[in-house]
Design goal:
Shape: elongated
CATH class: Mainly Alpha
Number of helices: 3
Number of strands: 5
Helix content: 25-40%
Bound molecules: zinc ion
Order of helices and strands: HEHHEEEE
Length: 115
C-alpha cells in the first residue's frame, strides 16, 4: 500500500498549544497567574493574555472563568469590581502594595463550585 506523507492541513500555532495547557491547569485547580506561569513554563504576561482569550472562548462551551478577586493584605479590601485580570499595583484605601493576586479557575455554568 502506498502512503504519502501528509502535511497537516492547518499547522497548529504554538499559541494554541500554550492556551490548551493553561486551560488544562485551571480546569482542575484554582491558581494565580504566577502559579500558571511556573507550571506552564511561560511568562506571566503571556498567561494574562491567554486568560483574556480563554475567558471569552470557553463561554460557548457552557464554561466560565471564575475569578477570585485580588485582596489587600493589610486592610482586606477586595478588588471585586476590577474587570482587568492583572493584579492592581496598590490598595486605594490604605495604599499598601502587598496585594494577594487574583486566582483563576474554569467552571461549568451549572456547577456552583465549592468555596
Ligand atoms: Zn488596603
Amino acid at each position: 500500500m502506498k502512503q504519502r506523507a501528509r502535511k497537516p492541513a492547518v499547522p497548529r500555532p504554538a499559541q494554541e498549544t500554550a492556551r490548551r495547557a493553561v486551560i488544562a491547569l485551571i480546569r482542575n485547580q484554582t491558581l494565580s497567574a504566577r502559579d500558571i506561569s511556573t507550571q506552564a513554563h511561560m511568562a506571566e504576561k503571556d498567561v494574562y493574555s491567554h486568560l483574556e482569550h480563554i475567558r471569552l472562548s470557553i463561554r460557548a462551551g457552557g464554561e466560565f472563568l471564575e475569578i477570585t478577586p485580588a485582596e489587600c493584605r493589610s486592610c482586606g479590601f477586595v478588588f471585586s469590581k476590577r474587570d482587568r485580570l492583572t493584579p492592581p499595583g496598590r490598595c486605594p484605601i490604605c495604599r499598601d502594595e502587598f496585594i494577594y493576586e487574583p486566582l483563576f479557575a474554569i467552571r461549568r455554568r451549572e456547577d456552583p463550585g465549592r468555596v
